[in-house]
Specification:
It is built from twelve helices and 19 strands. By secondary structure, the chain is an alpha+beta fold. The protein has two domains: 177 residues, DNA methylase specificity domains (Adenine-n6-DNA-methyltransferase TaqI, Chain A, domain 2, Alpha-Beta Complex), CATH 3.90.220; 240 residues, DNA methylase specificity domains (Adenine-n6-DNA-methyltransferase TaqI, Chain A, domain 2, Alpha-Beta Complex). A four-stranded antiparallel β-sheet has the order 2-9-6-7, covered by helices on one side. It has a four-stranded mixed β-sheet with strand order 3-5-4-8, with no helix packed on it. A hairpin with a 7-residue loop joins strand 6 and strand 7. Helix 3 crosses helix 5, helix 4 crosses helix 6 and helix 4 packs across helix 12. The chain is globular. The N terminus is likely disordered. InterPro entries: Restrct_endonuc_typeI_TRD_sf, Type-I_RS_S_subunit. It comes from Ruminococcoides intestinale. Keywords: DNA-binding, Endonuclease, Hydrolase, Nuclease, Restriction system. This is Restriction endonuclease subunit S.
Length: 491
């Protein structure tokens, strides 16, 4: 007999994320010859019903097909970096270079958290501009196009490099479509860690559209990723202006004064009057005080994000049971992991009818709002681009609504900087899952510059970067529309 009232408590608490999917049974018949053609594989995923439909659509399409890769393939070379022992170093290490995972490669402006020493050992982890990258393990089928930004980093061996003589943007666009991704994922193997190999891509058919269509799609993708590069350069310019105006040294140069180097562990003293009700060491790290004191010295004023001159609202949505629906029947829903992507992968759709009130009051986001992840990976910051308008984001993301467009870009540049990241993370609490809340965000220090023209310039550069990202999104959507209407579903 159960005497506990735990079940009753769980039923009434509004703190559990529940996702239910009533997926009908899918089945199909497969010929023996098809099993042999597929390498005598018996996994159901190889003969997925939707994959078979996608294959039939491509094979019976307007244009003949060619293999994605192989002797007659549209891709000349498909390979990935060799496995090696990763000896990570600090960013300050001589010849260090950022190392990007197959999920980070999807970000508009990848920010590596791991670094390796550049040299012969990691030579085949480099990627060239114009190469298409395809994730081959973990979440399989995610695709990106190597632009100037991404070419500066090493990329994990978990991404297959697809190199083409020409029209690599056409390959990227096809793999970005639902049909293309479904065909790639039909070749997955592995019981524990699922993956694909370059050899499997020989069985992925691609419509051999006329040269004019291929070039049109390719040029749109090249221009889209060029705009992403330009937006990143504008953000770099804005950040450089901020650092120069505030005479900020690098994070590593901030002296942690009060650290007792002779101790077996890092230690520092804190006055009782400065505890602020927090006895966790991370809140009182000397680097935090060093940054704030430096800002006070060189800024006209150091205020907080909660200042009405900075933000009109800081929203932390409550937790709730999510009801998902099919595409077209609800609002686009994204989480913190997708925050740095231009067109987030694996989008879900939240029911309008079930969550309409909550969506309007808490979840809906608007252009130029700054988003900050509040749990798990804390401190990821982005500014909402125009095409995210009216989308909804997870309750694990805090919304900072700027007081006006005159401060929106500046606010985002500071919070997204290395210095802003330290000031955000100082509020971290939790013994198992790290978190911050809206009250903490309102207390984050932010400087107002003495030179108002420089502050305005920083703000305008950030807003211009956000507009370029919106234009980049539109160009990619145009390429996808051409691929769908004039190639895949063409009559």
């Amino acid at each position: 007999m159960v005497n506990s009232n735990l079940a009753h408590k769980l039923d009434n608490e509004n703190t559990i994320d529940v996702e239910t999917n009533d997926i009908p049974l899918k089945w199909c018949s497969v010929s023996l010859s098809d099993v042999i053609f597929r390498g005598k594989r018996l996994e159901a995923s190889v003969f997925d019903v939707e994959a078979i439909q996608a294959l039939a659509l491509i094979n019976n399409g307007k244009y003949k097909t060619v293999p994605l890769y192989g002797d007659q393939g549209i891709v000349n070379k498909a390979h990935y970096g060799s496995r090696l022992k990763r000896n990570y170093v600090t960013p300050e290490h001589e010849n260090s270079i950022g190392f990007i995972s197959s999920s980070e490669m999807l970000d508009i402006y990848p920010r590596p958290v791991k670094f390796m020493v550049d040299g012969e050992k990691v030579h085949d982890l480099h990627v060239k501009e114009g190469t298409v990258l395809l994730s081959r393990s973990g979440t399989i089928g995610n695709v990106t196009f190597v632009n100037k930004t991404l070419s500066k980093f090493l990329v994990s061996e978990h991404a297959i490099r697809l190199e083409c003589t020409d029209n690599s943007g056409y390959v990227y666009t096809f793999l970005k479509t639902k049909i293309g991704k479904k065909l790639v994922c039909s070749n997955i193997y592995g019981a524990v860690i699922q993956q694909i190999e370059p050899a499997h891509l020989t069985m992925v058919p691609v419509p051999d559209a006329p040269k004019e269509i291929k070039e049109r799609i390719h040029n749109l993708i090249v221009e889209s990723f060029k705009l992403r590069d330009e937006s990143n350069e504008l953000i770099d310019q804005a950040t450089a202006l901020l650092i120069d105006e505030l005479k900020l040294p690098s994070i590593s140069e901030f002296k942690q004064n009060n650290i007792k180097n002779s101790a077996n562990v890092n230690a520092f003293s804190v006055k009782l009057s400065n505890l602020a009700g927090r006895v966790d060491a991370s809140y009182h790290l000397p680097i935090v005080d060093a940054i704030v004191n430096h800002l006070r010295k060189y800024a006209e004023e150091v205020t907080t994000v909660g200042d009405e001159r900075i933000s009109s609202d800081i929203i932390l949505p409550g937790r709730f049971k999510r009801v998902y629906v099919d595409e077209g029947f609800g609002r686009v829903f994204i989480g913190g992991k997708q925050l740095w992507e231009l067109d987030p992968t694996n989008k879900k759709y939240l029911s309008n009818s079930k969550h309409n009130t909550r969506i309007i009051k808490e979840l809906e986001i608007s252009e130029n709002t700054t988003l900050i992840t509040r749990s798990g990976t804390i401190g990821k910051v982005t500014m909402v681009p125009k095409h995210w308008e009216h989308w909804v984001t997870s309750e694990h993301i805090i919304r900072v609504v700027p007081s006006s467009s005159e401060i929106a870009g500046y606010l985002n540049v500071f919070l997204a900087s290395d210095y802003g990241n330290v000031l955000i993370k100082r509020f971290t609490y939790g013994s198992v899952v790290d978190e911050i809340d809206d009250n903490h965000v309102s207390q984050i220090a932010i400087p107002l510059l003495k030179n108002k023209d420089v502050q305005k310039q920083i703000n305008n550069l950030a807003l211009e970067a956000n507009q370029k990202r919106y234009k980049a999104f539109l160009l990619e959507q145009q390429a996808l529309e051409i691929m769908d209407n004039e190639v895949i579903f063409a009559k």
